[in-house]
Every structure is written in C-alpha cells, then in structure tokens.
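Need tokens for this chain, all 296 residues.
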Amino acid sequence: MKRIVKISSILFSFITIALFLTGCKNQDSQKSNKIDVVTTTNFYAEPAKAVLGNHGKVKYIVKPGTNPHDFNPKNSDAVLASKATVVVENGLGYDEWMDKLDSNNGNYLTVINVGKLMNKKNGDNEHIWYDPNTMSKLADKLAATYSKLQPKNKKVFEKNAEAYKNKMKKNQTLVKELATKSKHQNVAVSEPVFNYSLEAMGYKVIDSSFANAIEKDVDPSPKDLVKLRNDIKHHKVAFFVENIQEENKTVSGLAELAKKNNVPVVKVTETVPAGTNYFDWMNSQYQQVKKIQDKD
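Here are the structure tokens for all 296 residues:
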C-alpha cells in the first residue's frame, strides 16, 4: 500500500506526543500487575484477546481500512500506548511509528515484534499475517508473555492459546490441501500482500517487480507492465490477485483485462474488513483459490 507521508507533520506529531506523555504517563496498570495489551492492527488484537481471556484488556490503534504505513498517531493513541503492559506490533517497517510510542513507555513495557517472532528481517515481505502459521506462533508467544505477568493464570493462558491454535488449524489444513492441487503454477499479484499464503499453497509469483512498484506507489516500468498484460492475455498465470483495498487505475485495468480473458481474479485486502474476524477473512480468500482449483 502507499507510503507517501507528510514527514514534517509526523515529526511535529511525535514531538507533541512526547511532550504530552511527559505529563500524562500512567504506570498504575503495570504496578497492579494488570495486563493492558495494545496492538497496532485489528488482526493482532484477535489472538491477543483470545489468549488473554478476561484477565486484562486489549485495544488496537489502527482502525479497519486505514493504511498503517501512512498512519499518524494522535495524542489519544499515545495515551493508550503509555498505559500498555504489552504491545504487539508487526515490525519490518510496517508500523514503525509504534516504536516512537514504545520509547516513551519506560521500562515496564513488553514488546512483541511479530516480524522477529517469525524470524524475518528488514527488507523481507512485511505482510507476515498472511503466513498461515503466524497467528499460532503468536498465540504461544502471548501465552508465555502473559504468564510472566500473571503466573497464577499460566494454565489458563496456555489453554486459551491451544484453543485458538486449534481453530487456526482448519485454515492451515485447507492451505495444505490447496498446495496438493496448485501444481506449482504461476500467478500474478497487484501487490505482495497475499504472497505468504500463495507460497504456502505452492504457487509462484512471477511479477514481483511490478507488484513492488505498485506497493511503493511508483509507476511500474513499461517493460513489466507489457509483460504482465501479455502473461494475462496468453493465460501464463493461473489467476491474478488484486488488493481491492488499494485504488489504482493500472491495477483495476489489469483486473478487467483478466476478466475479459477468462483469467480468474482473487480479491484480497490488507486489513481485516469491518464486521468479520481473522479466521473468516483468511478462509474467504483461500476459498476463492479453492473455487478456481475446483474448476480446473
């Protein structure tokens, strides 16, 4: 998704937030052993809540449909972060603004960086929540983290984590089934959003250069665009993955071209749509791939 931001306004906001926190910092929840979890996005709030149960509170900062790349935290977000005992952030540059808020929280904060948890490094694809194994691994990490803060509830947290992981297994099993039928076919994507899932399903993305350009909000090279159009016209891709959360005339044109040439289009989003949950969100996108496979 687009990363164009007004740097001056962001720096001003962070300065304002830092000054604001000086006067409003609240460590009561940490001292009382209460667990207050703050996640950057709604999809990480889900496992955080599932594992924590009724032994604390979980809130997320970025509202559905908002681009975390360009997000500019407000004073209210800074206050929320200042009261957290646990923060869950994606890392890998996706929500780096959270690091600024973390730094104002003193020594009471535990930060779970999901990118590091999944053994990724800066420069790797940041959309790691699309890896079918991410949420299960995060659930275990959350259980261990909560247990250190509330040792008496360790068994409860571990039980909650197992229940959440068991739910995730349904989608993980579906992905494995899809992998047996993918035949390692080539696919094209508008952005590298769905790539971890595609990789798990055994597909090969062949337009990385084009997709990376779109994600960075720069024009793809004419050569890449011509090649992708030809690949679609000549059915050299099994399907085209369109991130419908991002408005882009070039991508919309390619999706229309795919439809005209009977190339299936898988529609995905970068964040969980309002009114649904992580499991159903992932499942609905996997089911689109299944429907394509079933027609082959």
